[in-house]
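User: Second chain of the day. Same drill as before.
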Amino acid sequence: MSLCLASAGVVKSLTASAFMLSWVHSVEKIEWQEDWQVTPQGLQIVQARVKGSGAGMEPPPEARLVDGFFRWTPKLPPLPEVALGNSGLAGEWHICVSGKCQELSAILGRPVGMNVTTMSACKNQDAAVPKAMDAKALNARGNDFSAKNDFDRAIADYDAALTIDPANVEALNSRAMAWRAKGDRRKALTDLDAALRLKPDFEIARANRKILFHEIELQGAKMPLKPPAAK
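Assistant: Same format as last time:
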């Protein structure tokens, strides 16, 4: 199994069937750890640990103090996706695999900053994506799947194209439209913003963002949206 991480158009995968997620609470400055398993059904939390207690992070009643940590097993089903935010008030998230821990920025190869990072179990793309295909070919095949309304397979190809070439603005724009077709305007907006940061004069992405922004406004979405600054 593999763990897929995505942030601002960058997608990385880690070969792992289990991993530990750790961070420090921004206010209490207390360490928090979680053990996760990567399963075909999604990400399954196995155990949560907190080194102490404080406002907003009290251990549940069933927690037990072992080796300096309050430990318990959250009652959650496998999750298709886990979102990691960053307030900027504490250090970065760390992911540990087989005892080796890395910050998200190091794993993704670029500063994460305030961007949201999503974690998910990687889809098995071995059969669907030949390793010989380049980013351009993957993007083209994704467009074919999109034209057939097979958006999940299209997104898998766009993901693979962006793994090869994280600055592929065409793949970012195409994936945004696939997310929009699936009804996930938040992810669509994230991809379009990433494309315009890489290529501010990308008129197709700018036009798509304008349409998407208008749709969100019509829905009364409670999101802090702001159009990119004009160049």
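Residues 135-219 form a domain with the Serine Threonine Protein Phosphatase 5, Tetratricopeptide repeat fold (CATH 1.25.40.10).

User: Great, on to the next one.
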